[in-house]
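Q: Given only this backbone (437 positions), what sequence would you predict?
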């Protein structure tokens, strides 16, 4: 009897040890870093601002938890932001890291290599991160350059925001996104690697972009302001080409975002099933009806419209064809945003930076407020909504347990004055503090 009792006791002891091991594995990770936040907006979807909070960050770069008061776990590094307003790292859904608009840029395709583009993109990535943007979508860059930079950031070799990259845009031969205004023999060399004509060719170009590493497929459904050609901003990809691109992308698990200004191209792209519209300058009531179908967003890029309008008046940077389009599109873009806001269209924050100077992305917040949005609505666009648009809703956009520690802090209160976002003294991305003034 005694022997049997000992066996039972031993078995129970072993079970207890196993249970203890299980509990230890399930225990929350210890905080490697704690941020003391004077005021905290953890989630712009509820708009709640809390005072005197501690954000616990694990060694894996993810948020462990948020605790009231200023706590200091044993062994954790303490980052003091008690005099600042803390919020999630910002997301820009439309940038071009490889360069910046200038009179010289017209000649970049024949003067610079993809290695040059990658190095310039790395420099601009650091500038963007220091401006408080911890995630960006790069929509239109040489594949080799942007995919290499994305890999280097992911591996921690280069300081920069998380990059969602489309690589080269799928564009019609000779259309916006392809090369123009050079001699034919030069055009043959520098034409876009994803230019296509006909449904089959565009389907193939889409699949090859995904094969090359595209996270999202960017297409140019219409003409564009910066195309050096007097081709307008109407539809350029045909209905059949649009349908083939969307079918190919969706079948391979990628969303499609469409550069689109003219209403014919906007509506054709939406009917074909694209997931979002970049710019959307001339959308109409049919566009709004189509945008309300499914998980769709408009990325308004007001900063780009405002900036090219300034350049058109100053002269010296834009060609005559570009300046003519810029003068018309900028003001029309503002009218569209006001109309679409009143109609309840969903917006994700995006600037088209690279058209405008890198590091000034936050100017978009001020333009959105001028168009009628509240500061809190713009903050939601640049966090929760942009994360959802880029399929990162479980990764970033909030300060919450399990999310990446993408965190910024500013002086002042951005829920009252978005201009405070133009100067971001503290930036943490994926758990690493890259800037702390």
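A: Predicted residues:
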């Amino acid at each position: 009897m005694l022997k049997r009792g000992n066996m039972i006791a031993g078995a129970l002891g072993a079970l207890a040890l196993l249970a203890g091991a299980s509990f230890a594995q399930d225990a929350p990770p210890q905080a490697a870093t704690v941020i003391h936040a004077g005021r905290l907006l953890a989630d712009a979807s509820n708009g709640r601002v809390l005072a005197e909070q501690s954000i616990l960050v694990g060694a894996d770069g993810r948020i462990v938890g948020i605790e009231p008061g200023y706590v200091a776990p044993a062994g954790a590094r303490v980052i003091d932001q008690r005099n600042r307003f803390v919020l999630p790292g910002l997301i820009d859904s439309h940038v071009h890291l490889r360069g910046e608009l200038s009179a010289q840029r017209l000649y970049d395709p024949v003067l610079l290599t993809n290695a040059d583009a990658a190095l310039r993109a790395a420099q601009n990535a650091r500038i963007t991160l220091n401006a408080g943007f911890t995630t960006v979508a790069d929509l239109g860059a040489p594949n080799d350059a942007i995919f290499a930079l994305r890999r280097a950031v992911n591996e921690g070799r280069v300081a920069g925001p998380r990059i969602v990259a489309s690589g080269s845009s799928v564009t019609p031969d000779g259309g916006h996104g392809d090369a123009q205004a050079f001699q034919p023999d030069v055009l043959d060399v520098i034409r876009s690697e994803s230019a296509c004509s006909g449904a089959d060719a565009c389907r193939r170009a889409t699949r090859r972009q995904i094969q090359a590493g595209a996270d999202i497929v960017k297409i140019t459904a219409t003409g564009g302001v910066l195309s050096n050609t007097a081709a307008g901003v109407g539809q350029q990809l045909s209905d059949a080409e649009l349908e083939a691109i969307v079918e190919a992308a969706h079948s391979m698990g990628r969303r499609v975002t469409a550069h689109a200004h003219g209403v014919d191209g906007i509506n054709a792209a939406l009917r074909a099933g694209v997931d979002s519209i970049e710019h959307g300058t001339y959308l109409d009531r049919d566009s709004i009806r189509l945008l309300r179908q499914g998980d769709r967003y408009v990325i308004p890029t007001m900063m780009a419209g405002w900036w090219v309008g300034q350049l058109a008046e100053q002269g010296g940077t834009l060609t005559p064809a570009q300046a003519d389009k810029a003068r018309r599109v900028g003001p029309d873009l503002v009218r569209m945003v006001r109309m679409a806001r009143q109609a309840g269209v969903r917006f994700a924050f995006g600037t088209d930076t690279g058209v405008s100077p890198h590091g000034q992305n936050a100017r978009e917040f001020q333009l959105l407020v001028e168009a009628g949005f509240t500061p809190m609505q713009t903050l939601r666009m640049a966090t929760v909504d942009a994360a959802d648009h880029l399929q990162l809703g479980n990764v970033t956009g909030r300060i919450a347990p399990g999310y990446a520690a993408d965190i910024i802090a500013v002086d002042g209160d951005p829920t009252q004055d978005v201009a405070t976002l133009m100067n971001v003294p503290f930036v943490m991305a994926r758990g690493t503090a890259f800037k702390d003034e």
